[in-house]
Specification:
The complex is a heterodimer of chains A (about 850) and B (about 200). With about 850 residues, chain A is mainly α. Chain A is about 60% helix and about 0% strand. In chain A, helix 16 runs antiparallel to helix 17 and helix 19 runs parallel beside helix 22. In chain B, helix 5 links the parallel strand 5 and strand 6. The chains are: A mainly alpha (about 850), B alpha/beta (about 200). The structure holds guanosine-5'-triphosphate and magnesium ion. Chain B: It catalyses: GTP + H2O = GDP + phosphate + H(+).
């Protein structure tokens, strides 16, 4: 019937004539009946076709054609064109058997071609593929795809720059969405579509000059086509690496093949191209509403993380973070929007760990900063009842923790410093509800990061600026915030996993199974530098009227951990000095309720009882045992466990009426001496008291400071609005609020003072002086050394801090009154000068 | 046979269920498919027609109307020579969405693309959009207008033929947008091997 066949089947002459007259318009296509005049290449081509398509390609003749084309490569283009013409005709007449043979012949020629001559042939080869793809017959489409894939796998020496793949990308993407009524056929077409896309990617990805496959017009087709197939999987199994994937049948299942293709695409993406892949991914998840539930999103993003070149992995995190708040199609409903946001954040927390290992320097902070910014935005819009918003915040905090968990320890400290620098300070002035909430959330984040940090040396865990910031927050007005801060201290201090055992005060340590190790020289240096600041902040923390049971217990835990972690003869006096000061304050601090007084007494006895367990202090143990025994018979309310409420105490049972049940300083000194511990420092005056120790401002260390101070300063603790211990025996009702008339609590005084506490000021002064000195006297080279390594990250921090101090913490339009907030920020020294004074000294 | 002189890309858009696929099948295969399922993503059909004795190949991309496929379908607008925007004359909401579609076209298609508004399903008794309303809308937005019935084969052939004629005229007058390299490949020369696009085949 066809023009071609007439050479073999003379009986169908009329058919041939018919087609010749109507269709053969090519003047170069000579009449079939005078074959002798036909060019040799045409005869060779004609001969590869059998009489009946079932017989398949005539192998021997195909060899002749191949040989001919190799020896006369200049004829390749005409051979290709002729084959294409024949196939076109056969498609038109639906003689698919011959079409298949023509395609097979083209495949063989393509593979036989030498690379230099390939280009001559490729054009007609691709025309042929396209022609087949244009047909509605699935079989031809699949065949064409296979040929295309074969072609895609050939490495060309000189790719043709004018060759474009737009049609193939468009058509293969359409095939990926095949909706053929027969499921098996549908899957085959989809598989072919994916294979075709894979082929285009392989063909073009290595050489941007050929066709920039990363352009949006291509990625917007390729990526959704792959995802659409992936999402149809019955279940999502995420494996980190395809090569080690032992599941069978990746070649037969569209979801699996699509996944492999996505991995390949992502794996080949260079930095500039990542975004072109990620943007359509995010859009696809929005459009197809695949965030809630988010198992497919987690699956996909993990795959992306596993296959992306490691050094770029953070850009995935970045893209997802920037998308957290993006409006999806259902954006009009705020509830569903919050839910989507939470789901996205949960995806983030699932992948962030994979990125952490490969992130460096500024990109780490960028990620953290972004997470914090999102948290802040969430707090700003938070409404009390929004549980989804809470879920979102939790997901973000989890993401932070996950991320930090996989960072090296030195970066964790940087991150913690960064986070705490963002905690709004609330101890001065009234803090808004939003402030308190943000404080809590940031501290939760800090705690999350802190728990991933493994402390070895205290000085590394608590760089001066970080410690200072922590201690500043420890005086926050919200009891919940203060408790959270203590938990952060616990996790950073607790090197021996004792914290869970020391959750509540006790005097029976023997059966707890505490792990105690003698502290190192570095720790001693640390405590000699910063011990006073820490102890004095804990002391202050115990004096607050607003303390709850949790606050007191949390500070107990901190102190107990300090006892254990700093156990040494050098520090025992300092610790006892603090304990005794607390005991004294429990008797004299007018703002404390009776319950508060009892709680402090129990804490004091618990801490003292701990000391003999961390050091050989037999005598002290005997002494404290006696006190405990007496208390348990006479005043059990002065022993742990701590209670929220204490029964009404008779005046005689008030701690202040039981001086003989108190720990006596002289007795303790004797106990220490007996164990060979130098106790002179203990006899010196206590440095713990509000503004009494100003004169110490320039002392080098608090230890010396304490030693130098006269004993009379003990009285200073009780200076100010204070009840005479003896006069405390009036009715308990009055006792509870002894200062109601004057009503000036220490806390209130401090609030009113509005500046940093004396201790803080002193510390800052001292540190500045030391630092100044260091910078004046140290050789320049040395200064460079100490400042250089962290320079980059500090630069970044500074930049971020700058931006923070410029923008108000919460948008002015926020629901919670931002006035006081902004003001409190302006009052502050820019955060960076505070945290990095070093930066401003040279 | 590959002897066409022009290749034009035609993209159909419009709400789900307005009859885009039926129009294409009617035109390319001459049938009205019973129980036509919703299109997924994009579908592709080809048909060669003759205008003034010259062969014109129409590459027809039939897009899914469903929202969720919007992002992939948009990626096909860009290379279109003609965009057929379809609504259902018996379904007011499909007409009400037209401004949204125009916005999308504005954003994603070449600004010189030939735009045709089509009100489909004229065979239906329960018409909701009078003809003149559709006509007005088309005029206001500089679009060609036609009412069709894929079911009764009314105006379907005419729709595609007029597009072919118009595009061919444009091409001959070289009015068809010259897509320069900076815009990316749109015309045949730069799309794929074998496409000669809107240009005359040599
Ligand atoms: N009466 C009538 N029904 C039609 C006509 N065209 C299409 N339909 C019917 O409308 C329904 C949808 O037709 P489709 O062609 O699938 O619609 P579509 O625009 O392709 O829809 P999507 O692919 O989902 O975007 C089918 O039930 C058709 O039978 C028409 O001209 N007249
Ligand atoms: Mg459809």
């Amino acid at each position: 019937m066809s023009f071609v066949k007439c050479c073999f089947e003379s009986g169908e002459g009329h058919d041939f004539l018919d087609s010749f007259v109507q269709k053969c318009t090519d003047p170069g296509c000579c009449c079939g009946c005078c074959s002798a005049l036909r060019p040799r290449y045409k005869r060779l081509v004609d001969n590869i076709f059998p009489a009946s398509p079932q017989d398949g390609l005539v192998k021997s003749n195909m060899e002749k054609l191949t040989f001919y084309s190799l020896s006369s490569p200049e004829k390749l283009d005409r051979i290709g064109e002729y084959l294409f013409q024949k196939a076109s005709r056969d498609i038109y007449r639906r003689r698919h058997g011959f079409v298949i043979i023509a395609m097979e012949a083209m495949d063989q020629l393509l593979l036989a071609c030498h690379s230099q001559t390939l280009n001559l042939f490729v054009e007609s080869f691709l025309k042929m593929v396209q022609k087949l793809l244009e047909s509605t017959d699935p079989q031809l489409q699949i065949l064409a795809t296979q040929s295309f894939v074969r072609f895609a796998n050939i490495e060309e020496d000189t790719p043709s720059y004018h060759r474009r793949y737009d049609f193939f990308v468009s058509k293969f993407s359409a095939m990926c969405h095949s909706n053929h009524s027969d499921a098996a056929t549908r899957d085959k077409i989809r598989l072919a579509g994916i294979q075709g896309l894979q082929g285009v990617i392989r063909k073009t990805v290595s050489d941007d000059l050929v066709e920039n496959i990363w352009e949006a017009q291509h990625m917007d087709k390729i990526v959704p086509s792959l995802l659409y197939n992936m999402q149809t999987a019955e279940k999502y199994e995420t494996v980190s690496c395809m090569e080690t994937d032992t599941r069978d049948g990746a070649e037969e299942s569209p979801p699996r093949l699509a996944e492999a293709c996505l991995r390949e695409l992502v794996g080949r993406a260079s930095f500039g191209h990542i975004r072109s892949v990620l943007r359509p991914v995010l859009t696809h998840f929005d459009r197809h509403e695949l965030w809630v539930p988010n198992d497919f999103a987690v699956h996909t993003f993990k795959i992306i993380m596993f296959s992306i070149q490691a050094q770029y992995s953070y850009s995935v995190v970045e893209a997802l973070m920037q998308h957290l708040d993006a409006a999806g199609p259902g954006a009009s409903d705020p509830r569903s929007r919050t839910r989507v946001r939470a789901a996205r954040a949960a995806v983030l927390s699932n992948i962030v760990a994979i990125a952490a290992g490969d992130s460096v320097g500024p990109s780490v902070l960028e990620i953290i900063n972004n997470l914090l910014t999102n948290l802040r935005a969430s707090v700003a819009r938070d409404s009390e009842k929004e549980t989804d918003e809470k879920l979102y915040q939790e997901a973000l905090i989890n993401a932070l923790g996950e991320f930090a968990d996989h960072l090296p320890d030195f970066q964790k400290i940087d991150i913690m410093m960064f986070i705490i620098s963002k905690v709004p300070s609330s101890q001065r002035g009234k803090s808004t509800k939003a402030d308190a909430m943000l404080q809590t959330i940031l501290l939760k984040s800090l705690l999350k990061v802190g728990t991933t940090y493994k402390t070895t040396e205290l000085s590394k865990a608590f760089p001066a600026a970080f410690l200072e910031a922590l201690l500043r927050v420890s005086g926050a007005s919200e009891p919940g915030t203060r408790a959270l801060l203590q938990r952060i201290l616990h996790t950073l201090l607790d090197r021996h996993s004792n914290a869970p055992l020391l959750h509540t005060p006790t005097v029976d340590y023997a059966e707890l199974g505490l792990t105690v190790e003698k502290c190192s020289r570095q720790d001693l240096i640390f405590v000699s530098k910063h011990g006073y600041a820490i102890f004095s902040s804990l002391y202050d923390g115990l004096q607050l009227e607003s303390n709850t049971l949790e606050n007191v217990e949390a500070i107990y835990t901190t102190l107990a951990l300090l006892c254990i972690e700093l156990a040494s003869e050098e520090t025992v006096c300092d610790i006892l000095q603090l304990i005794l000061a607390v005991q004294q304050s429990a008797l004299s601090n007018p703002v404390l309720s009776v319950a508060g007084q009892c709680q402090l007494q129990a804490v004091v006895v618990s801490l003292t009882a701990l000391l003999p367990h961390v050091m050989p202090l037999m005598k002290l143990d005997d002494y404290i045992r006696k006190i405990i025994d007496s208390r348990s018979s006479e005043a059990p309310h002065l022993l742990p466990p701590l209670r929220r409420e204490y029964p009404q105490l008779a005046p005689a049972d008030m701690p202040s009426s039981l001086p003989y049940l108190m720990i006596d300083q002289m007795a303790v000194c004797e106990c220490l001496k007996a164990s060979g511990v130098e106790s002179a420092r203990l006899q010196a005056a206590s440095p713990y008291a509000g503004g009494a120790t100003l004169s110490l401002a320039h002392r080098h260390s608090w230890v010396e400071a304490g030693a130098a101070q006269g004993r009379d300063s003990l009285a200073d603790i009780t200076a100010g609005p204070v009840l005479e211990p003896d006069s405390a025996n009036s009715s308990p009702g009055v006792q509870r609020h002894p200062m109601q008339a004057e009503s000036v609590s220490l806390e209130a005084l401090r609030r009113a003072a509005g500046g940093p506490t004396e201790a803080e000021k002193r510390e800052a002064e001292r540190r500045k002086a030391t630092l100044n000195n260091a910078f004046r006297t140290a050789p320049f080279q040395h200064l460079r050394e100490i400042t250089q390594p962290k320079y980059e990250i500090k630069d970044k921090l500074e930049e971020i801090f700058n931006s923070i101090s410029e923008e108000p913490l919460l948008p002015a339009s926020g629901s919670c009154s931002p006035g006081g907030q902004t003001k409190s920020y302006q009052q502050h020294v820019p955060a960076y000068t505070k945290y990095f004074p070093e930066l401003f000294l040279y | 046979m590959e002897d066409y002189k022009f290749l034009f890309k035609v993209v159909l858009v419009g709400n789900a269920g307005v009859g885009k696929t039926c129009l294409v099948r009617r035109f390319t295969q001459g049938l009205f498919p019973p129980g036509q399922g919703a299109t997924i993503g994009v579908d592709f059909m080809i048909k060669t027609v003759e205008v003034d004795g010259e062969k014109v190949k129409l590459q027809i991309w039939d897009t899914a109307g469903q929202e969720r496929f919007r992002s992939i379908t948009q990626s096909y607008y860009r290379s279109a020579h003609a965009l057929i925007l379809v609504y259902d004359i018996s379904c007011q909401p499909t007409f009400d969405c037209l401004p949204d579609w125009l916005r999308e076209i504005e954003e994603y298609a070449n600004n010189k693309v030939l735009r045709i508004l089509v009100g489909n399903k004229t065979d239906r008794e329960d018409r909701e959009i009078p003809r003149h309303i559709g006509e007005d809308f088309a005029q206001r937005h500089g679009m060609y207008f036609l009412e069709t019935s894929a079911k009764e084969a009314e105006n379907v052939e005419r729709l595609f033929m007029e597009i072919a004629v118009e595009l061919m005229e444009q091409a001959k007058c070289k009015e068809l947008p010259k897509y320069d390299g900076s815009l990316g490949p749109i015309n045949g020369k730069t799309t794929s091997v074998g496409d000669s696009g809107c240009c005359l085949r040599s």
